[in-house]
Design goal:
This protein is an alpha+beta fold. Helices cover 32% and strands 26% of the residues. Strand 16 (264-272) and strand 17 (278-284) form a beta hairpin. The relative contact order is 0.13.
Length: 425
């Protein structure tokens, strides 16, 4: 098997595949220092389609799992499928559901999927005029791929004007921000639901909740994600059935009608309103990060078979899900998210609890073996336990024990769940 990507998500994928089938031969491209214990790392960028296709031939790859969104948006799955290879991940056309928020909003409108009312703009003057008459608060989104940082929740029209200026006027988001989506603010609580699908059948992974804000209590700037936990109490069986019926199935049907059948993970980022109504915040075309690091440790068995079947176009097979709880804390570099500082030496204690797994996200190893910071999000510390409170405490304590200069992390991952448990709701 070949896992494409080199972040925490891809480490978690390789870890889950290896745990389920220790005898499987796994390659990661490019992988990271964490995946070296599970797989053979190939020094190939996740966006180098030619070399990835050559590697699939050279190493006799049976199944390729594409982790990040960018190679999917570039058409890696199409390229490999055209060569007769089994790939888990959507083709380029279907990946537009994440690569273009404008495409996604149009798709949801056609499929009558509940989401925020919105307008799309490429002209700065028109966008500013729309902001000036829009109710507060409001949300401004870069339509393209922006590494999880393209959605700006604006309390005032002044903040929204500044966001529009940054995207359409100052080109701060590059190509991703040359089309913007301006939409109404949706109150409620976010929920991440990841569905494995061949475009028809759907198997749900346990619901998770991401923490986008840098600071505790959900303060500070948006990031790619500072932690996640799973399962989530508000993700009841009744709600998941409703989301499948009202969101996932209509979306997949509309994609098929438009000639872009879906294969892989369809990630629905949801807002659960005060009345319990789910609406879509965004779709992603791949496993979430850091949700994957919290969700996959709860999959006891069936993952490899499920991915293999979907990659061949068959309906996904059932998964066996553990009854426990998982909490993932992201350790980020000093200066993250705007100007992360690289190079700090990392010390991971050898005696962390056995229920704690450290997934590498932005690390590199010197020739002398020293582990160093090489990215904004550095490590993902996942604890699995019988209760949420224990998983939260073990993830937090292990995160405190890992050392590198300027380490930034949140000690309150899962704070909403903690409040619910304290109130007994």
């Amino acid at each position: 098997m070949l896992v494409v990507g080199g972040g925490g998500r891809e480490h978690a994928i390789a870890w889950a595949l290896h745990r389920e089938d220790p005898d499987a031969t796994i390659y990661c491209a490019p992988g990271n220092p964490g995946t070296t214990a599970l797989a053979t790392n190939l020094p190939i960028s996740a966006t180098d389609l030619d070399r990835l296709a050559d590697a699939a031939d050279a190493y006799g790859i049976d199944l390729t799992i594409v982790g990040p969104e960018t190679p999917l948006a570039l058409g890696l799955a199409d390229r490999l499928r055209a060569e007769g290879r089994a790939v888990f991940g959507p083709g380029r056309a279907a990946a537009q559901i994440e690569a273009s928020k404008a495409f996604s909003k149009d798709l949801m409108e056609k499929a009558r999927v509940p989401t925020a009312a919105s307008r799309t703009f490429s002209d700065l003057k028109e966008a500013r005029a729309y902001v000036d008459r829009h109710a507060e608060p409001l949300v401004v989104k870069a339509s393209g791929l922006a590494a999880g940082k393209g959605a700006i929740v604006c309390a005032t029209r002044g903040e929204a004007r500044a966001a529009v200026q940054a995207m359409l006027g100052d080109d701060q988001f590059g190509e991703a921000g040359r089309v913007v989506v301006i939409e109404e603010f949706m109150p409620g609580e976010e929920l991440s639901l990841l569905a494995i699908t061949n475009g028809d059948g759907v198997v749900l992974l346990p619901p998770a909740q991401d923490h986008k804000r840098l600071g505790e209590g959900d303060t500070g700037p948006n990031t790619g994600g500072m932690g996640a936990y799973s399962p989530v109490a508000i993700g009841t069986p009744a709600l998941l059935e409703r989301v499948t019926r009202e969101v996932l199935e209509p979306t997949l049907s509309q994609l098929a009608r438009e000639g872009t059948p879906y294969n892989g993970v369809l990630y629905a980022g949801l807002m659960i309103g005060p009345d319990g109504t789910p609406r879509v915040v965004e779709f992603n075309c791949r496993l979430g990060d850091p949700e994957t690091q919290a969700v996959l440790p709860l999959v006891e068995k069936g993952l490899t078979d499920c991915l293999w079947r979907v990659a061949q176009g068959q309906a996904p097979s059932p998964l066996t899900i553990a009854k426990g709880h998982a909490v993932t804390t992201v350790l980020a570099a000093k200066g993250y998210p705007d100007r992360p500082e690289k190079g700090a030496a990392i010390a991971i204690p050898p005696a962390l609890p056995t229920a704690v797994t450290v997934f590498h996200a932005g690390t590199t190893r010197d020739s002398d073996g020293t582990l160093r910071v090489s990215g904004g999000r550095v490590l993902n510390v996942t604890a699995v336990a019988s209760t949420f409170a224990l998983a939260q405490a073990e993830s937090r304590e292990a995160s405190a024990a890992i050392q590198f200069d300027g380490k930034v992390y949140r000690r309150d991952i899962g704070w909403r769940e903690a409040v619910r448990q304290k109130l007994g709701v």
